[in-house]
């Protein structure tokens, strides 16, 4: 991302924060003047505090770094749900450590798609993994990695006896992976890269207590488990708690692929489907209604009992917690996400000569640039289309407020082993880029030759 854009976003966020602080302090002065000298002293101290904080944010503060910390490590108080209600930590620990069942070994965790940040693995554990003295088939290894904060997106809470007492999730669970530089599933973090290996449905389904989901959805536990286990690796249904649609009309799972969180600067709409809102809207939505953190969330559209029966019944569009651990963190989280640049294709990822020809085809004959306008590779403005316009069914778009699909920005299309593992489009319906090109060649009657389609694919792989 252009550094000037990053600076502009940071300055805008800081200005808004400072303005709010000053307005709040000024209001305190007005109230205090009517209340007496003691209150006036308190108000003056509030002004001084606001000024100190504004200077810290304006000079020494770093919203990108703060946003990184939030993205990677902040659970927003979600332990109260995942541990306190679902008791998921007990399934992770196993009966020998005060939980239930056999526990989850490190190898099982890796097979479920959980990732390990190699830079946070204690040296003794890392050496043990290399030498084979650390048993990765034991739940003890999982607990050691959790206590070190090394499991990406998962934060364990431990007591003084190193016993796991709760667990919470962070943004990084679904929207980060690792480069596998230490071992498969273990390496340096790749923030913003979707975790297309993560079987979040199976992980949640293993929780000892699923009553919060059965109560919300008004179905039995067997149905909840069936839906969760149907998602598979890399997929998640962020709308199940709104409309209760666990399957598509064709019987396939309603879950969609985890999207990338990089390359979003300048892009309107954050999700596969339209008019939910900006990046900040979706951050607030997910932190409150998916991660089950403690905060405030408002969206009166969710009161529509016909379109969103589950949300309307549970008043999800009017969530209020006395302790708000989310709202104040949204600015920094937003700035960090907008700072995440699209990864460049590695050497040899595409044929440069064919890509050059494909670029011309993209901008002319194939008419791709009509919607995927360079360099955003989506429309600058209202980047939404009906299902009929793009030639697919409207199941997923019909779940959105306006029944539209977003023109997805074309990002890191060369990466089919990580970023686009599982296919293309919201549900992975197109296994390859050639499948995508073939679809539009037929839908728009472009009459591209086989050679033109191959060149076009090479250009797409260069993005």
Short account of what is shown:
The protein contains 20 helices and twelve strands.
Percentage of helical residues? 40-55%
Strand order, sheet with most strands: 1-5
Terminal residue distance: 14 Å
Poorly predicted sequence stretches spanning 5 or more consecutive residues: 1-37, 50-60
Q: Report the oligomer.
A: single chain
Radius of gyration: 24 Å
The biggest sheet amounts to: 2 strands, parallel
**What is the total tally of β strands?**
12
- Discrete helix count: 20
Average pLDDT, rounded to a whole number, is 90
Question: Based on helices, strands and strand pairing, what is the structural class?
Answer: mainly alpha
Principal-axis shape: globular
- Please state roughly what percent of the residues sit in beta strands, choosing from under 5%, 5-15%, 15-25%, 25-35%, 35-45% or over 45%: 5-15%
């Amino acid at each position: 991302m252009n550094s000037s854009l990053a600076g502009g976003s940071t300055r805008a966020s800081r200005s808004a924060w400072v303005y709010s602080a000053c307005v709040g302090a000024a209001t305190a002065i007005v109230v205090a003047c009517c209340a007496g000298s003691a209150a006036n002293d308190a108000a003056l101290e509030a002004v001084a505090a606001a000024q100190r904080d504004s200077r810290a944010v304006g000079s020494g503060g770093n919203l990108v770094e703060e946003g990184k910390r939030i993205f990677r490590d902040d659970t927003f108080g979600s332990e109260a749900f995942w541990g306190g209600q679902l008791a998921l930590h007990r399934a992770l620990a196993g009966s020998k450590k005060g939980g239930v069942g056999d526990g989850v070994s490190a190898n099982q965790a890796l097979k479920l798609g959980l990732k390990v940040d190699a830079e946070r693995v204690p040296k003794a554990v890392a050496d043990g993994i290399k030498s084979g003295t650390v048993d990765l088939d034991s739940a003890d290894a999982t607990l050691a990695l959790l206590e070190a904060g090394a499991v990406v997106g998962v934060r364990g809470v431990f007591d003084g006896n190193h016993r796991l007492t709760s667990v919470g999730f962070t943004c990084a669970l679904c929207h980060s992976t690792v480069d596998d530089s230490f071992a498969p599933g273990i390496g340096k973090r790749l923030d913003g890269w979707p975790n297309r290996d993560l079987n979040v449905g199976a992980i949640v389904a293993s929780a000892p207590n699923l009553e919060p989901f059965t109560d919300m959805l008004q179905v039995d536990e067997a149905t909840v488990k069936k839906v969760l286990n149907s998602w598979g690796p890399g997929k998640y249904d962020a709308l199940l708690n709104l409309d209760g649609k666990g399957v598509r009309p064709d019987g396939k799972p309603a879950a969609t692929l985890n999207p990338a969180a990089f390359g979003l600067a300048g892009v309107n709409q954050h999700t596969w489907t339209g008019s939910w809102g900006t990046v900040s809207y979706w951050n607030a939505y997910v932190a409150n209604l998916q991660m089950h953190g403690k905060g405030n969330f408002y969206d009166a559209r969710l009161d529509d009992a016909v379109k969103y029966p589950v949300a309307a019944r549970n008043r999800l569009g009017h969530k209020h917690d006395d302790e708000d651990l989310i709202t104040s963190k949204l600015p920094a989280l937003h700035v960090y996400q907008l700072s995440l640049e699209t990864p460049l294709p590695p050497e040899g990822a595409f044929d440069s000569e064919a890509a050059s020809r494909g670029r011309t085809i993209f901008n002319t004959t194939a008419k791709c640039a009509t919607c995927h306008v360079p360099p955003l590779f989506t429309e600058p403005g209202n980047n939404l289309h009906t299902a009929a316009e793009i030639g697919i069914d409207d199941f997923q778009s019909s779940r959105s407020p306006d029944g539209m699909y977003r023109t997805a920005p074309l990002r890191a299309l060369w990466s089919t082993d990580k970023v686009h593992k599982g296919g293309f489009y919201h549900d992975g319906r197109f296994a390859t880029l050639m499948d995508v090109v073939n679809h539009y060649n037929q839908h728009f009657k472009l009459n591209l030759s086989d050679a033109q389609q191959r060149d076009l694919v090479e250009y797409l792989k260069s993005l």
